[in-house]
Amino acid sequence: MNRHRFNKVNAFSGETSGIVKKTYLITVALLSCLFLAAIISLFFIADNLNNKADARSSMLLQKALTNRQEKIRSNLMDNAEWGEAYNHLHKQINLKWAWDSQNLGESLYTNYHYEGAFVLSPTGQTRYSVIEGKLAHLHIDSWLGRDVSADIIRDVARNNGKAVSRLMMANGHLTLLAAAWITPGDDEEIMPAEGENSLLVFVDVLTPPKLIQMGNEYGIQDVHTFGEMQPATASDYRKAQLVLPIDRGNILVEWRSDDPGRALMSREVPLITLILISTIAFIWAMRRSALTKALRNDENVFLLQQSRQALAASERRFRDVIEATTDWIWEADSQGRLTWLSDRFSAMTGHHTDRWIGQSMLDFIPMDNTLFGQWLFNHSATGNFSIKKARYYSAQGHERFCNLEAKRAIMDNGSMGFRGTVTDVTLEVEAQDRVEYLSRHDELTGLPNRIRMKEFLEGKLQALPDQNHPLAMISLDLDKFKPVNDLFGHTAGDELLNEVARRLRDCTRKIDLVARQGGDEFILILPDIFGRSDIETLCQRIASEMSRPFSINGNEVHISVSMGISLAPQDAMNASDLIRYSDIALYKAKNSGRNNWVFYEPNMGEYLIQRREMEKEFREALSEGQFKLVYQPRYDIKTSRIAAIEALVRWQHPRHGLLLPDQFIPLAEETGLIIAMSDIVLEKACRDLLLLSPDLSVSVNISAVEFNTVGLAKRVKTALQKSGLEPSRLELEITENVTISNPEVTLETMTQLKAIGVRFVIDDFGTGYSALSYLKRFPFDGIKLDKSFVFAMEESDNAKIIVENIIGLGKAYSLAVTAEGVETAEQLKRLREYHCDEAQGYFIGRPVALEKLNLHPDFVE
């Protein structure tokens, strides 16, 4: 017998060992493939990181060079368009004015690091020169080691005397040269001389230290032209290169690559290798352990097969109760006295088993045992007995609920008795009660909800309120609640709603009902009111309470409230009409300036009808093409030309005539039709621009509601594709408040559109969100100074300071600044003095149809 058992166990063990070994080999092979794939992927990721880092550095380096050219041209124009310079450098060379008084002398080298400053005659002769901050008498061609004077005279003439620049190699160094005619500028007191203009030339030699400093400003290390670094130094790091076009060919610029891929590989490859080795070792140990346990398990299985007959007798006891899912099991004799309880009894009830053995099962459910007792002692009754949600008490005296199942059974000693199960359903009962409560109450504030409110209202209306004792219904909506959620989060909003609910309960009587409709809407039902004056007094008290500051998470929050009131029986005698009428009155209150209350009047329904009619007409306008575009030019102050146009929408209404945006944009935003209208405006503006000069850009206004709608980036791309307009010629104007309503969605949308070249401008800058952090976080290209600041310049010195500071702020963030509302030449002159980039207003041009657009106004020089 023992030999047979041994052979059978060995047969099981051999089969198990083969399965474990095969599983181990397959697992090791799969892990090795996965780790190999991970290392290969890591190499690709590292290479991709390096390429992206180099591309970013290349873009920043080109931007740095572009900015340096713009700076030298700007500095050059400040000196070239100067009446005194025209007198002392063109009409004659006044060394005392130029050198002794340092109007064009050493400061150009010490302050701006321009190695050369030259004044050339119209024929190219050097009339005045300052080299490395010292007065010199050296021709520019001789100093640069190449003939450039003829070329720059020709380039400046082609640009009508405005500043031009070129990147070139001179004396072995990358050199930036800028030139412009010397003119009187805006100085009307200077009498221009006859003949051609002299030239002012600035030379910025980009020496190795300058290149390194320029790169460091943008986080790019060791910028140099090809061959300038020592081989030993250059081999210590990975180099990135950029082919830079210059005036006579190309030059190779190198810098130290960030090389993020090397850091990734040096950190992750050893770690992955260590993990691979550790994993294989762990699996090996697990394999040995599993094999050992499997052998033991095979023997245990064999032993368990031999013990099945011993378990058969025990299964008979539980076979009758297996059909029901239970928490604990009980047995009782023919008189219902408990003879056995399962171990779960104590865990579920807290009672000791010994205390209940011998007691009647009827005593366990004392309040619901009548039917159970009748069945228990009716010996003729057949079948099973069950009772749902019977109440019992735990050992701590807490009321609990259970489902009880019982059946008659023959005990082991042959006597008749009972067996059954008990399932604790306390949590289920409490959950149902909770659901029942929540079905009629607001979970956040605990106030009655719309269902409970309607039940209460219908019950009070059945009491038939009369003219002397009417029932009042007040629909209440919080003003300025959304900014609380936006600025402080929804947790603060929930806390505010709880405090509002508490103040409303304090304002009302015990017989009144305060209910929450959802969001920031509440309803008050006031039965048995003695007069309209009582309602006025209550509304005044509520408005006063809501105007008091709320302390939310350490922040002081201010809101107000609007209320609409309907009365029964004066206005209606059914719940639905009273609710509707109070909503209409509330809508009227909010449109009348908020923070007030309005009683319902029958004629208020006409307003809603008019609004629905307006919405219908708006839809017809979309389908029939009633929306027209007019364009207002934007004037580039530096180049003295029209640089862009702004597209403005008008509604040519068949009955009301021409409507301005303020008369229909709010309706479009409320109804969601703003998207359909915006698609029309975008595509029309892009198509119209193609009919004008290829140097112009067009700007289109995008509302905050529309900007935070999913799919804006896709819609803009579609408009560009349909029209064929280059994305770089499209600007989207948005208000400052767009950045606070949904900043993550806003940033994602802007990033998608910036990637294809679309520009973003902040409209009405200075009138919205006061924090300036969004200028750094969001990729704006420009700001439009609100016209209220421009208007105030004529009356206030403080306004002039504000305008100048805002322009300076824009410059600090590298943003183009456009001033709106320019209506006089004096305003334009002042903006030019403040170095404002662009101007827009009636002085520049009024909004007109495309065919009437004047791109060459009279004041343009």
Can you give a write-up of this model?
The chain is an alpha+beta fold and 861 residues long. The chain is built from 30 helices and 30 strands. Helix 17 (490-507) packs antiparallel against helix 18 and helix 22 runs parallel beside helix 24 (712-723).
Shape: flat
Strand coverage percent: 15-25%
Question: Helical percent range?
Answer: 40-55%
Report strand order across the widest sheet.
22-23-25-26-27-28-29-30
How many beta-strand segments?
30
Low-confidence stretches: 230-234, 320-324
Summarize the model shown:
By secondary structure, this protein is α+β, with helices and mostly antiparallel strands.
Descriptive tags:
861 residues, alpha+beta, 8-stranded mixed β-barrel, 6-stranded antiparallel sheet, flat
Explain the layout of strands and helices:
Layout: H1 2-80, H2 83-91, H3 95-100, H4 107-110, E1 116-120, E2 126-131, E3 134-136, H5 140-144, H6 149-158, E4 164-170, E5 173-181, E6 199-206, H7 208-217, E7 221-225, H8 231-234, E8 239-246, E9 249-256, H9 260-306, H10 308-319, E10 328-332, E11 338-341, H11 344-349, H12 353-356, H13 370-376, E12 384-393, E13 399-410, E14 416-424, H14 426-438, H15 450-461, E15 471-479, H16 482-488, H17 490-507, E16 513-518, E17 521-526, H18 532-547, E18 550-552, E19 555-557, E20 560-568, H19 575-591, E21 597-599, H20 604-624, E22 627-636, E23 641-653, E24 657-659, H21 665-671, H22 674-689, E25 697-701, H23 704-707, H24 712-723, E26 730-735, H25 738-741, H26 743-754, E27 759-765, H27 773-777, E28 782-785, H28 787-792, H29 797-812, E29 816-819, H30 825-833, E30 838-839
Parallel strand pairs: 20-21, 23-25, 25-26, 26-27, 27-28, 28-29, 29-30
Antiparallel strand pairs: 1-2, 1-6, 2-3, 4-5, 5-6, 7-9, 8-9, 10-11, 10-14, 12-13, 13-14, 15-17, 15-20, 16-17, 18-19, 22-23, 22-30, 23-24
